[in-house]
Design goal:
The chain is built from 13 helices and 17 strands. Helix content is about 30%, strand content about 20%. It has 2 domains: about 220 residues, Dihydrodipicolinate Reductase, domain 2 (2-Layer Sandwich), CATH 3.30.360; about 140 residues, Rossmann fold (3-Layer(aba) Sandwich), CATH 3.40.50.720.
Length: about 450
């Protein structure tokens, strides 16, 4: 401990190699320093000025987190509900600029980067406009609203050379970095299956967000909100709970499956599945939404240089009576690695001998079999070892803060980020194809290299 009671780097317990796992249970604190702890002091001339585009719950959270990174300040906020513009001034200062029109922000020379946290159907247009205007972009997941937008956004990033990072923070997490390291070491043997889930059991968790009593056509820019979506009369429920509708959102697959895809793709270094199939239904939250509240997806992943072919199973349940939760289970031939708020490795190696099932053989055949069997596999009076290792992040760890630290470091240095437009679409593409499989009631082939649907 230092004089302030904080745990210093030298106090973290160093992690042993996976091959050194021993019988028993142990807990370890992840030893890597967090990027925000490494951040140098920033001179006034090196400050990054950002604008928030979409000041809803996620956008406000993103901005508060971004402002924890040294040298970052917010100068403008954009939203289509006047109440959120007022709230932006309350939170970030009366001197910030507020507007309903994001183009006014993109025209400002004092804006270096933007956070795009709008409904999904605006992500592509605003992100491309921002990059064309010379702004770096932090875009909330999913990167796109429809499959035909992905390659357009990838091309815009290549053409403009701007920094573009998707907001799925697991790719910057020390937890997922440790899982990546452990799996690459072969700690669970040969990978054969991955299970992932994100369950909830609350109204807010199921997107029944509060609607302000002053919502009206005077306080909400409804026509601008619709954009290219089908025209309809003002509906405050659709505006404030847009995730429940295909016209503006991408359902549980786009909102939550995409997080799971992003985390798993980072851990395994894979580009994506080759086959997608989904089922589910609207089981509990029958509130007018047109997307399911229970969804299950199955995916075939191809062999890569580092891993054999494996299967992925994803699940979301918005009425999970157990209380909900999120996590991964990477299942291998020699153990299981679980990711939640920590990383846990449970190893149960196979017995050296294969075993036998000779009871249906004649007695003399059994005796002959066992004589040969024991010659090859001498009987041992020892127990097979098993082990459990737990790896925890430092107290009060924030992978969202790490993710923004990575983004702003790239804005300054122009270094590439991991979760760029290509990575983002390789996560969003299978998520959106999951929706298509669900609604069309059929499986789809996917080419993770070209990021296109395979022709039947």
């Amino acid at each position: 401990m230092d004089d302030n009671g904080k745990t210093s780097r030298r106090d973290f317990i160093k992690l042993t190699a996976a091959s050194a796992l021993v019988a028993g249970t142990s807990s370890r604190i992840l030893g890597a320093e967090r990027p925000q702890e490494q951040a140098p002091k920033v001179s006034p001339n090196d400050r990054i000025q950002i604008a928030l585009i979409g000041a809803g719950g996620q956008g406000m959270w993103n901005t508060r987190t971004a402002l924890r990174v040294p040298g970052v300040e917010v100068v403008a906020s954009v939203d289509l509900y006047d109440g959120r513009l007022a709230r932006s001034r309350e939170l970030f200062g009366n001197d910030i600029s507020t507007t309903r029109d994001y183009r006014e922000v993109l025209a400002r020379s004092d804006v270096d980067a933007v956070i795009v946290a709008t409904p999904d159907h605006w992500h592509t247009r605003i992100s491309i406009d921002a990059m064309n205007a010379g702004k770096d972009v932090y875009c909330e997941k999913p990167m796109v609203h429809s499959l035909d937008e992905g390659l357009l956004l990838i091309e815009a990033q290549k053409k403009t050379g701007r920094v573009f990072q998707v907001g799925s923070q697991r790719v910057s997490s020390v937890i997922y970095s440790k899982a990546k390291e452990l799996l690459a070491s072969g700690v669970i043997g040969e990978l054969n299956m991955v299970e992932a889930w994100w369950d909830r059991n609350s109204a807010i968790g199921a997107w029944q967000y509060s609607i302000p009593p002053d919502a009206s056509t005077q306080t909400v820019d409804w026509d601008r909100f619709l954009g290219d979506a089908p025209k309809r009369d003002f509906d405050a429920v659709r505006f404030f709970r847009w995730r429940n509708y295909q016209d503006y959102g991408t359902g549980v697959a786009g909102d939550l499956f995409v997080h799971l895809f992003s985390g798993m793709h980072f851990v395994l270094g894979t580009d994506g599945p080759t086959r997608v199939m989904a089922t589910g239904g609207l089981r509990f939250w029958k509130d007018g939404r047109d997307v399911p509240d229970v969804m299950l997806g199955l995916y075939d992943y191809p062999k890569t240089a580092n891993y054999p072919a494996f299967n992925l199973a994803l699940r979301v349940n918005f009425a999970d009576g157990s209380g909900g939760g999120s996590g991964f289970r990477f299942i291998g031939s020699e153990g299981v690695l679980t990711i939640g708020n920590t990383v846990t490795v449970l190893r149960r190696p196979r017995a050296e001998e294969p075993g036998y099932s000779t009871d249906t053989f004649p007695k003399d055949v059994q005796e002959a079999f066992m004589k040969e069997y024991r010659a090859r596999y001498p009987e041992k009076k020892e127990m097979r070892p098993s082990s459990e290792e737990n790896y925890s992040p430092p107290p009060n760890y924030s992978d969202s803060l790490d993710h923004f630290t990575v983004f702003f470091d790239s804005v300054r240095s122009r270094k590439p980020v991991v979760e760029d437009a290509i990575f983002g679409f390789r996560a969003a593409g299978p998520a959106l194809l999951t929706n298509r499989s669900y609604f069309d009631k059929k499986a789809y082939g996917w080419d993770p290299e070209t990021m296109t649907i395979k022709k039947e």
